[in-house]
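Quick question: what would this complex look like in 3D?
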Amino acid sequence: DAGVIQSPRHEVTEMGQEVTLRCKPISGHNSLFWYRQTMMRGLELLIYFNNNVPIDDSGMPEDRFSAKMPNASFSTLKIQPSEPRDSAVYFCASSVGRGLIRNTEAFFGQGTRLTVV
Amino acid sequence: DQQVKQNSPSLSVQEGRISILNCDYTNSMFDYFLWYKKYPAEGPTFLISISSIKDKNEDGRFTVFLNKSAKHLSLHIVPSQPGDSAVYFCAATPSGTASKLTFGTGTRLQVTL
């Protein structure tokens, strides 16, 4: 398996522009997570999907951020409009959930480094 | 409010010696703990985990210790190798949930020759 695939690897955009980050989870995984890494706050969970349904989006910073998972093999994280303080590395991760049995560990993609100028 | 804390941003250890990375948590609902390793320009990779029903879990050179009463866990690497140089993240998740992980801010380990 190729692992979790994220695109693009790097994104530089101007303030005010829309940014879309993409993620393909590992086949067969039914939980998907979007994390953001910054120097100050480390890795923060933004949103978590289970079976394509958003379960917890309490980590999404504000309305400028939205995430979708239209099917089991694809998710997007969109920022509109983008601001310089959104500059960070955004990671997607997936794992196997087995109902009440604890999930396996999450597998991370290589991340998208976003720079908003 | 940082629920998982790694108070040492960096650590330098000589090759062959023991590396000890520490992590504290505040949320009593956490009952499963993981360590991830991260190299530059890569995503974090799972290293080792421990359930709250245990106080120790060992995997080769890596051992995680959990002290529930102190809400403290540590990762021991023995012997340390240059390839262990990376950022180590401690993570925790509460009972009954999927792997919704709360991460610490990481500790950068440098293993010197």
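Answer marked as accepted. Chain A has a mean pLDDT of 91.
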